[in-house]
Every structure is written in C-alpha cells, then in structure tokens.
Backbone:
C-alpha cells in the first residue's frame, strides 16, 4: 500500500516526533519521583544520553519506543510497507546503536535499564516494581 500522504506532509509529521520528554518518559519520571528517587535527565556526558540517570545507584534508564527501537515480539514494532528496505536498515542501525551504548555504559561501570513504552502503558506499577528490585536488590 502506497503512502497516502504527500512527501511534504509525511516529512512534517515525522519532524514532530520528539526524541526527549516523550509521554512515556514523563510518565516514568513521575513514577520514579513519587517513589522517592532523585535523578538527572538526558546525561549529556554519558554514551547514548540516557533518558534518566540515577547517580546514587550508578544506573541509567532508557525509555524506548517499541516502534523505533524494535521491541521484540511487540505488536507495536511494525515495519511500514512503503520503502521496507530503508526502514530495515534504519531499525538495524537504531538497535545496533542501542546495544553499543549499553555496552559502553556497562564498561564504564553503569547499570543499564531499558523500559519499553508498551510495558509502561500496560503496567506502570510493574515497571516501577521491576526498577525497585533492580536498584534495591544489591544495596
């Protein structure tokens, strides 16, 4: 199926997709703050600029959108039917970059937590519990 939008309109739509302060990211920050965690945002000096940095726990959190970061097995990780090869390459680069950033952070002694958009939407309390276990399990 061909794209029903003009290339100008599609470009405009895509330019509106935010890379930070997204709805899932703001939701997780609110949950963490209410739970008593204090954090920094978008760690500029860390590989991959993690969405949330918890220095006290030496932990970074990335809030990943299922579509852009290819949440395996998720119904939101679809591939557009228009220009599938372009999308395949783009998604592979995103996943490779995510993996490389996580490895670099681990090598620097940081714990890396990935929170998926769909998990946060379905079960925010479960996501927070999982983060609590990860942070407090060894402290």
Residues:
């Amino acid at each position: 199926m061909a794209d029903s939008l003009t290339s100008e309109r599609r470009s405009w739509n895509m330019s509106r997709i935010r890379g930070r302060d997204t709805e899932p990211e703001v939701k997780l920050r609110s949950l963490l703050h209410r739970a008593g965690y204090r954090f920094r945002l978008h760690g500029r000096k860390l590989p991959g600029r993690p969405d949330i940095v918890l220095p006290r726990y030496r932990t970074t959190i990335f809030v990943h959108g299922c579509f852009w970061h290819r949440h395996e097995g998720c119904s939101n990780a679809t591939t557009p039917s228009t220009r599938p090869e372009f999308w395949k390459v783009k998604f592979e680069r995103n996943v490779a970059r995510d993996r490389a950033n996580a490895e670099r952070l681990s090598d620097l002694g940081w714990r890396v937590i990935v929170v998926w958009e769909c998990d946060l939407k379905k079960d925010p309390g479960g996501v927070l519990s999982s983060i609590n276990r990860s942070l407090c399990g060894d402290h």
Q: What stands out?
A: The longest helix spans residues 84-107.
